[in-house]
C-alpha cells in the first residue's frame, strides 16, 4: 500500500513537503535503531511501542506522536531535533 494520494511508481521528490517529512522522520528512526543494532521488535518492546506503528513510521506512512519520539530518544540517545529533521546533530550534549 502506498502513501495516500500517491500513484504507483512515485518518487520521493514528487511528494508534498508534509509527506516527505514522514519519510525523513522514518529514515531517522530507522537509522537510530540500526545504529544500536536492534530490531524493530526489540525497539518496540524497549520503548513500549507498537511494532506495526514503528514499521509504518519507518516506511514513511505515518508520523509518531511526541510521546513515541521521546521513548525512541530515551532508548537510542538520538536527539528529538535530529529525529524530526530539525537538526543534523544526532545527540544532545550534557
Care to describe what's here?
This protein is mainly α and 94 residues long. It has a single domain, classed as Orthogonal Bundle (434 Repressor (Amino-terminal Domain)), CATH 1.10.260. 53% of the residues lie in helices and 0% in strands. It contains 5 helices and no strands. It has helices at residues 17-35, 40-46, 51-59, 66-76, 80-83. Helix 1 (17-35) packs across helix 3. The longest helix is centred in the first third of the chain and has 19 residues, at 17-35. It is globular, with a radius of gyration of 13 Å. Mean pLDDT is 82; it is low at 1-17.
Short description:
With 94 residues, this protein is mainly α. The chain has helices at residues 17-35, 40-46, 51-59, 66-76, 80-83. The protein is globular.
Layout of secondary structure:
Blueprint: H1 17-35, H2 40-46, H3 51-59, H4 66-76, H5 80-83
Amino acid at each position: 500500500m502506498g502513501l495516500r494520494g500517491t500513484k504507483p511508481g512515485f518518487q520521493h521528490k514528487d511528494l508534498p513537503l508534509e509527506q516527505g517529512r514522514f519519510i525523513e522522520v522514518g529514515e531517522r528512526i530507522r537509522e537510530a535503531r540500526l545504529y544500536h543494532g536492534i530490531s524493530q521488535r526489540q525497539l518496540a518492546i524497549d520503548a513500549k511501542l507498537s511494532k506495526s506503528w514503528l514499521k509504518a513510521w519507518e516506511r514513511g506512512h505515518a508520523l509518531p506522536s511526541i510521546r513515541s519520539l521521546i521513548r525512541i530518544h530515551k532508548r537510542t540517545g538520538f536527539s528529538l531535533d535530529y529525529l524530526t529533521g530539525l537538526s543534523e546533530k544526532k545527540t544532545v550534549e550534557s
